[in-house]
Specification:
With 417 residues, the protein is α/β, with parallel strands linked by helices. It has a single domain, classed as Spore Coat Polysaccharide Biosynthesis Protein SpsA, Chain A, CATH 3.90.550. The protein is built from 14 helices and 18 strands. An eight-stranded mixed beta sheet has the order 2-18-10-13-9-3-4-5, sandwiched between helices. A three-stranded antiparallel beta sheet has the order 1-11-12, with no helix packed on it. β3, α6 and β4 form a beta-alpha-beta unit. The longest helix is centred in the N-terminal third of the chain and has 16 residues. It binds uridine 5'-triphosphate. The site of uridine 5'-triphosphate has 22 residues, from loops.
Length: 417
């Protein structure tokens, strides 16, 4: 694309402020801007901006509770059966693991990829090392190398790879970490729908949400690699939960024995107003309804056993059958917008550091894929065993709370952190 073509495209979409950035830029930055403008789908951005101005309503949808199984209520025979099936899958090399580590971790505010964050244990292990330890134990237990795929973003890919390299991949079995693949990204917009110019002088782009995994594992060849290795089940989890059980035979056996196309390990809401997304059925299909979308009445509704009807929280603990992933790669997930704070460079070249949200980021969510999968199994796990989120710098879901949960779990199970 040359300057004239860029100008024409920017004029068409009312984004001519980019030309001011171009005029200020050095040759290398000019080149980057040209490439960005050529690649970016401004028509899509126009639609996404329009979406930020529209409210989501559910009054025309039928919302119902979604059945689940509580792992604590399984009888010994059922448990044994599931564990046996799950262990066979792991042992025979049919399980792969994907860790989603492409997020920006804005709330935590750590300088670097979230996985490199030192949780503050006596051992000073990073989140990445904690996850590696878990998988190494599973590999030893089942005499197998579990193939591990790590999703990064364009922003944090290099730092992530260098971190693993500098720690000799935490001695994970050779060839076990199959690849660090990159998810897609989308430009961020200001409150008037204009693309943001960052401090580097180019259009600011951000990772396109954890739903980006479906396109990314396909595009970067991870899915193909799994197929070549005869993988049947793929556990997909987050990087910011040191209690994530990536090779849990009970969960895997539950999904496989019931022929589910995908399964999610849930945790019951601690209280009706807890700010978590919960599973439901929307027009007959599995759906995760956000805490911002659920009515007070629904949040408090209880079933005949006194359990919350909409209490199964989605915690990014998901298993997919490989055939399901093959299908999802062909579908576009809906975008959600998040109103965030973002530094930007204005038309005069001044760096603006906002005090309140001033920008929109667009993301797809992994759980929106459930709406495309009729057969999703829910297995309720236990909060204290499965979930220690590291989200905020302080307070709830912070390193302090996660560390305590992790240390308590390890102590309960006679393990060293
Ligand atoms: P969150 O949605 O909590 O986002 O990610 P985050 O980036 O870690 O933190 P904030 O919201 O900016 O403070 C949950 C999991 O999904 C991954 C994250 O790395 C984390 O493991 N994720 C999120 C991605 O891999 N890509 C994304 O685009 C977003």
């Amino acid at each position: 694309m040359n300057y004239e073509e860029m100008k024409e495209k920017l004029e068409k979409y009312n984004q001519t402020h980019v030309l001011a950035a171009y005029d200020r830029a050095d040759d290398a930055t000019k080149e980057k801007l040209l490439t960005q403008v050529e690649r970016i789908d401004f028509e899509q951005l126009k639609e996404l901006y329009h979406m930020t101005q529209t409210e989501i309503k559910f009054e025309n949808n039928k919302i119902e509770p979604m059945p689940y199984v509580d792992s604590a209520k399984l009888n010994e025979e059922e448990k044994k059966k599931y564990i046996e099936i799950g262990e066979n899958i792991i042992r025979s090399g049919k399980l792969a693991v994907v860790t989603m580590a492409g997020g920006q971790g804005t709330r935590l505010g750590h300088n670097g990829p979230k996985g490199t964050f030192d949780l503050g244990l006596e051992s000073h292990k990073s989140l990445f090392e904690i996850l590696t330890d878990y998988l190494k134990n599973a590999c030893e237990k089942y005499h197998v190398t579990i193939p591990w795929y790590i999703m990064t973003s364009k922003d944090n890919n290099r730092d992530t790879v260098e971190f693993f390299e500098s720690h000799n991949f935490f001695d994970y079995p050779k060839d076990g970490i199959r690849m660090f693949f990159k998810q897609g990204e989308l430009p961020m917009l200001d409150e008037n729908g204009k693309v943001i110019i960052n401090e580097e002088g180019i259009i600011k782009e951000a990772a396109d949400g954890h739903g980006g995994i479906f396109e990314a594992i396909f595009k970067d060849g991870a899915l193909e690699d799994m197929k070549n290795r005869g993988i049947e089940w793929i556990f997909v989890g987050s990087v910011d939960n040191p209690l994530v059980k990536m090779a849990d035979p009970l969960f895997i056996g539950y999904a496989a024995a019931n022929n589910y196309m995908a399964a999610s390990k849930t945790i019951v809401k601690a209280y009706p107003e807890e700010k978590v997304g919960v599973f439901c059925k929307k027009d007959g299909m599995p759906y995760v309804i956000e805490y911002t979308e659920i009515s007070n009445e629904m949040a408090h509704q209880r079933d005949e056993n006194g359990e919350l009807s909409f209490g199964e929280a989605h915690m990014l603990l998901n298993l997919f059958n490989i055939q399901t992933l093959e299908k999802i790669k062909e579908v576009k997930l809906p975008y959600h917008s998040a109103h965030k704070k973002s530094n930007l460079v204005d038309e005069k070249g001044n760096v603006i550091i906002p005090e309140k949200p001033n920008a929109y980021k667009f993301e797809t969510f992994i759980f929106d894929a459930f709406a495309l999968i009729p057969d999703v199994g829910l297995l309720r796990g236990k909060r204290e065993d499965d979930f220690a989120p590291v989200k905020n710098a302080e307070g709830n879901d912070s390193p302090v709370t996660a560390r305590k949960l992790y240390e308590d779990y390890m102590k309960r199970n006679g393990m060293i952190c």
